[in-house]
Write a structure and sequence with these properties.
The chain is mainly alpha-helical. Helix 3 packs across helix 4. It has 4 helices and no strands.
Length: 150
Amino acid sequence: MNQYFKDFETKLQVAEEKLDILSEWHANKGHTGAAEVADECRTAITSLWIEFYRLSEAYKAREAEHEAFFDSNVTNLLDELKRYDDEVEKRYMERHGQRPNYLLYDFLAKGVRNWTDPDRQAIDNTTNIWYYLRSLIVSDLRSKETKNHE
């Protein structure tokens, strides 16, 4: 979408420049009525610029809302994962008196530490897992977006 905005802005600038050239040409030739047509075109282009600005601002606001929604979903996923593991651990401890070694949260914590560049890791396991899950989702969304554009 950002590329669309850039392309549209470029095309609108080109149209405005061509209109200026055409307007000057008509004025130099002394064509009557051309100035009025050029003014109407300028008014239309100004309206397009205003609508373009409003649309791009609305898009940016939606992107920010989407980002917040996305982040909260990853956080909810992580919270649910941790709650599930806590329940499993509690039941296992009641039956066997020791902590299980198959908790998904622990597996992810260890895996993320192995799969992620050590310079990009946080001290906290929850933060590492959160960023890892988020990166997987972003990667998946980008690959789907790429496939949809092909």
